[in-house]
Amino acid sequence: MEFPEHRDMDLTMLTSMGVEVLRFDAGQHIIEQGSSGTDMFVLRSGRAAIAINGATIEEIGPGGFFGEMGLVDGSPRSATVVALEPCEVVPVGERSFLFLVHETPYFALDVMRTMAARVRRMNEKLLTV
User: Fold this and answer.
1) What digits encode the pLDDT tens for the residues 37-58?
2) How far is CA 55 from CA 39, 59, 76, in A?
3) Count of domains for the chain
4) Which residues make Cβ contacts (< 8 Å) with residue 78, sequence separation at least 6?
């Protein structure tokens, strides 16, 4: 069975709750590896690169998300995310995450599937080194 990488999400649910859209210029760091943070982020527009120790491991576009591990476990950021072009991102804290899961249950599955896919890709890279 194939699953879409990301379902279209109506981010107006969050912005109507008062969640502020954040804007970043190309080249600007959205999050820094090693920094603290408990929000995940949904990319509303633009493209961003996820990098670990300076090596890009993934590029994402609108509807993609990052920072989900920080939301789940509160540990320091495992990657840096850099805007490749002007980006708009919507921060999702725990309260907003629970709201999204309640209103759109597939959102939680999308997050878990993305996390699993990223872990599998990293495992494959480790096995080939």
Assistant:
1) 889 999 999 999 999 999 998 9
2) 23, 11, 18
3) 1
4) 33, 52, 69
- Return the structure tokens found at 121: 């890709």
Please give the model's pTM, rounded to 2 decimal places.
Answer: 0.82
Q: Render 72-92 in DSSP notation, one character per residue.
A: HH-PPPSSEEEESS-EEEEEE
The order of strands in the sheet holding 48-52 is: 29-31, 80-83, 48-52, 55-60
**Tally of CB atoms within 10 A around 21:** 14
Output the domain CATH number for residue 45.
Answer: 2.60.120.10
| Residue carrying structure tokens 């997050």 | 111
94 belongs to a structural domain:
yes
Mean of the per-residue pLDDT values of the chain: 86
Which structural domain range is residue 46 located in?
12-128
